[in-house]
Specification:
With about 150 residues, this protein is mainly α. Helix content is about 55%, strand content about 0%. It contains seven helices and no strands. It binds heme C.
Length: about 150
């Protein structure tokens, strides 16, 4: 599954490279609005993160060591959520789905957390880890987000 994902991303990147730059701007969505998260929301997100997520995703969401290497069970350790992994490749609806329902199809070790945390808490969590992303990662995420919202 990971391989398929990487191939898709690779193809997207190649497609980007081959696009004529004069036309490219037409394909790109408007710039992402600034991340105006309130300090209260970020504080709430961090608190929930530390209670429910830190034991796997690490301090400040840096991810587990060797997160790109499959464990003995053939599954991947918890990736970083701080923007140094690939969390910013996923539209928000996908992130919410993974947090609520766990790894898609039960194929990984992310547990379903939907019965432990509310929708508002998930909003705060996502805001908190998005506040850790670089501006570049956030802008690219916004492209995925806009494309996803256009499809649905
Ligand atoms: C028991 C360990 C564990 C806990 C607790 C846990 N996670 Fe995870 N998480 C994982 C693993 C392992 C993966 C990778 C899953 C896969 O490969 O399918 C993951 C994947 C994710 C992803 C997808 C990331 C990406 O880049 O694709 C998100 C988002 C996420 N977790 C958020 C959270 C949040 C938010 C919490 C707390 C509410 C949490 N996780 C709690 C182990 C955990």
């Amino acid at each position: 599954m990971r391989v398929v994902f990487l191939v898709v991303i690779g193809t997207l990147l190649l497609a980007c490279d081959s696009v004529d730059h004069a036309n490219h701007t037409a394909d790109i969505q408007a710039e992402a609005p600034p991340r105006n998260f309130t300090p209260e929301l970020l504080e709430a997100g961090k608190t929930i993160y530390e209670k429910h997520c830190k034991r796997c995703h690490g301090v400040d969401a840096v991810g587990s060591k060797n997160w790109q290497v499959q464990g003995p069970d053939g599954k991947y350790p918890a990736p970083p959520l701080n923007g140094t992994g690939h969390t910013w490749h996923h539209p928000k609806a996908v992130l919410i789905g993974v947090i609520k329902n766990g790894s898609p199809g039960g194929m990984g070790n992310m547990p379903a957390m939907g019965d432990k945390i509310s929708d508002d808490e998930i909003e705060a969590l996502i805001a908190w880890f998005q506040s850790l992303w670089s501006e570049q990662a956030y802008q690219i995420w916004y492209q995925y987000e806009s494309a996803h919202n256009k499809e649905t």
